[in-house]
């Protein structure tokens, strides 16, 4: 399929009111701040978007509101993260009806499938809609590894157009290039490996801390792909303590607290995730506030 996904694609947060009810106006207002900073696309209902904490109807409500609000200014993708292959296929079809531009497909949740089962799952979801697919490989969080040979196997399905590589192993970029050539668009999926990934051949970044620091994310990306290595390294080193927050089991809470500290929205998460407390909260606030005091251009 002929798609030109590239650049910065936020894994956008989903906003909630104080009673944990879905806050669509807050979600869209936050999205506006990232659009103003120049994002190239957006992914709703990923891990950071708390996909698995939303009811099925709520997910479609988020997508419907986002598609209408964005108005085709940038591509809108949705995460597909369900416990069964059948439900993932149903959601893929319903997301197409809502009008999204593509899917970011995860393995089946909870059960850790073996390679044969994983390939069958992805091929089934690909057949459920006509949409192009960004395959999300995150063995660290989800316990299922889609290896370069497996991606080579999937290469005969034209709907698979891109890979979000989140194995935390930058060697994978080179291994994917060697196994698959230019068959897939490659996206960095781990914030604190973005510079390494760009230099190895990634042309996109599914970013987390862009939710709190959209302008600085845009700056770092432009310096990196523009070949301004020394300037990119300077910004990357400033950004690194923030980007490390993307790799923690509580990345959703950390990123949402950063969003709140930056005045871009609420830190409210939906249980079982709870707002941070005590020293953990203070430590994250210190990281964010230090970055705000020392941000590039200040």
Number of domains: 1
Helix count? 12
Q: Could you say what the CATH architecture is? A: Alpha-Beta Barrel
How confident is the prediction overall: mean pLDDT? 97
Percent of residues in beta strands: 5-15%
The CATH class is identified as Alpha Beta
**Number of β-strand runs:** 8
List SSEs in N-to-C order. EHEHEHEHEHHEHEHEHHHH
CATH superfamily: Aldolase class I
Q: Give the termini separation.
A: 43 Å
The coarse overall form would be globular
What order do the strands of the largest sheet run in, or round the barrel if closed?
1-8-7-6-5-4-3-2
Helix percent band: 40-55%
User: If you consult CATH, what is the topology?
Assistant: TIM Barrel
Structural class: alpha/beta
Written overview of the protein:
- Helices cover 47% and strands 12% of the residues.
- It has 298 residues and is α/β, with parallel strands linked by helices.
- It has a single domain (7-294), classed as TIM Barrel (Alpha-Beta Barrel).
- Strands 1-8-7-6-5-4-3-2 form an 8-stranded parallel beta sheet, covered by helices on one side.
- Helix 11 (251-261) packs across helix 12.
- The radius of gyration is 18 Å and the shape is globular.
- The protein starts with 6 loop residues before the first strand and ends with a helix.
